[in-house]
Amino acid sequence: MISQEEFEQFVDLVERTCDVMNQKAQHNPSFYRSNDGKMMESVVWEEFADQARETIFEQQVSLVPSTRSFPDIIIGGKFGVEVKTSKSGWKSLGSSIMESTRIPGVEHIAMFSGKWVRGTSNSKSNLMKHA
How far apart are CA 115 and CA 99, in angstroms? Predict the structure, then answer.
């Protein structure tokens, strides 16, 4: 069971990480546009781990090595982040997001989307709850 405080801190971590990645993307958009989805999972994971310092999630941010499960990143064992990238729009057909591949114990998942288009880079996040 997730406490309200844990959930609020997870939301804060997601929002902070999204803000920082947007700032970095504005300073170096070519770096983000030149990376594929798998590489971006690592970049997003590193930023989450960095932003988790001095929070209840410090040292609890893990990149999932399997391509056959979701989410891509586990935080504190109960939270997850699924990373999606696009060079055109925000739509995801959910090719890697199937309930049968969800890692057990993960109750809340943030969708972390990166969109890379001419001259700009932008990230956004949305939260999902496992029912």
Answer: 25
Domain residue ranges of the chain, discontinuous segments joined by +: 4-129
Contact 112, 18 (CB under 8 A): yes
- State CA 92 to chain mean position distance: 14
Dist. CA 67–CA 96, nearest whole Å: 8
In tens, the pLDDT along 41-67 reads: 898 999 999 999 999 999 999 999 876
**64, 70, 122: which is closest to 100 by C-alpha?**
70
Name the pLDDT band for 128 (thresholds 50, 70, 90). Answer: very low
pTM metric for this prediction? 0.80
Beta-strand pair 61-63/73-75: antiparallel
Is 118's pLDDT higher than 60? Answer: no
Describe the chain by its helix, strand, coil percentages, rounded to 5.
35, 25, 35
How far, in Å, CA of 115 to CA of 131, rounded? 28
Query: C-alpha angle with apex 43: 118 to 88, nearest 5 degrees?
Result: 30
